[in-house]
Amino acid sequence: GQNIDQPTEMTATEGAIVQINCTYQTSGFNGLFWYQQHAGEAPTFLSYNVLDGLEEKGRFSSFLSRSKGYSYLLLKELQMKDSASYLCAVRSNNRLAFGKGNQVVVIP
Amino acid sequence: GAGVSQTPSNKVTEKGKYVELRCDPISGHTALYWYRQSLGQGPEFLIYFQGTGAADDSGLPNDRFFAVRPEGSVSTLKIQRTERGDSAVYLCASSTSGTDTQYFGPGTRLTVL
Predict the structure, then answer these.
(1) Of A42, A95, A100, which has the smallest distance from its Cβ to B40's Cβ?
(2) Which of residues B35 and A4 earns the better pLDDT score?
(3) What pLDDT score does B112 carry?
């Protein structure tokens, strides 16, 4: 079975840094994905980790520890447009198992 | 290039009716996925196609749900005898293969009255 846990909501100030955590327990593992989803829109791909360590991609970075079943997404220099839900998903046997998503609200 | 497209964007139906939801994947993507997302939840896997065949349909909740992809491109998700609990956003995603990044369409919001 799959169990993906994420905190539900956080508020942060424009220009700040925010870290979104994800813990998982899965029967198989073939990579961890982060998606951004604005209200009423499709999830859009942000980052992918399959090996332990940090992947940096502009203002977004993602970290993975397979032994701990843990990942985080780091958002730097927050902008108002970053207000969205951030979904952590584990790939196993070609399917993605998603957490509930973490709603980030950016305030001026 | 064009992304994944889904039609209709919204579908309202009555309990007991039959509905079809369509997905056009990114051109050249051999893998296609259907997910269902309820309010406040992450997407939940339904079915995965590799080419024309359903490689994994273990996420379909019951036999009222069926999906086809006859030519290995467009897919249709079919729901018979709809129930109020089927109300959700149905998302389609595609990837170049089963091991690559999945790209999502805008979804179809299904409301069963």
Answers:
(1) A100
(2) B35
(3) 98
Listed in sequence order, the residues at least 6 apart from A81 whose beta carbon sits closer than 8 Å to its beta carbon are none
Q: Which of B104, B108, B109 to mutate: most A Cβ within 10 Å?
A: B104
Distance from C-alpha of B109 to C-alpha of B18, rounded to nearest angstrom: 15
Listed residue (B84, B91, B93, B87) closest to B108, CA to CA: B91
pLDDT at A54: 96
The whole-angstrom separation of Cα B77 and Cα A76 is 39
For each successive 10 residues of chain A (108 residues), what is the average pLDDT? 76 96 90 94 94 94 96 97 96 90 94
Alpha carbon distances (Å) from B74 to B5, B6, B43: 10, 10, 21
Query: Does B49 lie at the interface with A, CB-CB under 8 angstroms?
Result: no
Tell me how far apart the alpha carbons of residues A27 and A93 are, in angstroms, rounded to a whole number.
10
